Amino acid sequence: MPDQPPGAPAVPPPGSLSEQRAAATSSPAGTTSPPAAATSSLPAATSPSAAATSSPADATSPLAAVAPELVAGGYQALFESRWPHLVNPHVRALAWLLDAPDLLDPSAPQWQGRIATLGPVSPQTADWLAALDRDPSPLQAALGDKHISRLGLYAEKLMAFYFAQHGQLHAHGLQVRADRTDTIGEFDFLLHDGVGLRHIEFATKFYLLDANSPGFNGLIGPNLADTLGVKMRKIFDKQLTLAGHPAAQALLPLPVTRAQALVKGWLFYPNAVPDMPGITRQHCHGFWMTQEQAASLPDQHYAIMPRLQWLAPAKLPASAGIARAALLDAVHGQPAPLMIAALRPAGEWLVEEKRGFIVPDDWRAQAAQRRHEGVLPA
Known about the structure:
The chain has helices spanning 17-24, 62-72, 75-82, 89-99, 123-134, 137-143, 151-165, 228-237, 246-249, 324-331, 363-373, and strands at 41-42, 117-118, 169-179, 182-193, 196-209, 219-220, 256-269, 284-290, 301-304, 315-317, 338-346, 349-359. The protein is an alpha/beta fold. It has a domain at 37-42 and 50-280. The strands form 2 sheets. Strands 3, 4, 5, 6, 7, 8, 9, 10, 11 and 12 form a 10-stranded mixed sheet that branches. Strands 1-2 form a two-stranded parallel ribbon.
């Protein structure tokens, strides 16, 4: 599945991810809101991500679109090459949040400078992650003993731990109320930012491209509940304006100098990866196919991915994989999409090679019905 569509320029355009991250390392601290096309970087976070090289694929088959990654590697191989020593699932998830390419291109004009990006993972942070993998008890204590069912909350807790450990966190999950019964909104993160505070709305999103709907509203959640377009409108129109509310200002000891969205995630395609303005070219991606199409999956090890394991590429004990026949039995007739990982042996482990959603055969018809009902935008 090519990261770079046919006809795309061989040299990244100005403002590409690598240039943004390089420029972020020399930006002065404590600056005020950037101009519309400017980008900015959260301290000490993602490392540059090279796009996977692959050959063009036949756009008629989900498998054909994915197959080149088996040879070229893709993001999963890049992640494993960087972090082969990390085995604790929580630490790997945190490493992915810090290391993964941005889902949205911060330099794209439609975002008006309101997309945050994480700067390179420093050697000190890499060492800190390695030490945390050897003794994950501080992270486990921060996550708590209470069962977490929501992936977004899990990712927030991981990032709150990181920001707190690195002295950046002023507040996490600060609710703004007009009175005891009227909640106006919530600050995901307030970070120290020179003489003020930086408001970060944080999202980890997983969307499947439905070619029957144009633009960002064609990127639909697997359970047909929202779209990338709807999510970003909510973030821009409501969440990022929260600091301007009088009830919020009464809670803040310092002014909010910047308000931006930090968006991580994976996008899933039925065919080749299209060039979508506003989406980072190096974004993490996979495939989606119907249950009927899944019959053509190759023989190898697989895993069905529980929701809280959707962030980082999977790394499982060698005994944890399932065969193709068992996978097909497990997904047959399932009413909701399931994320699967195709795995390859690596010593005593099975590591993720590619990932994708297997959806009910009528998933596209369900999406069309949701649009007709007004649940999803047309």
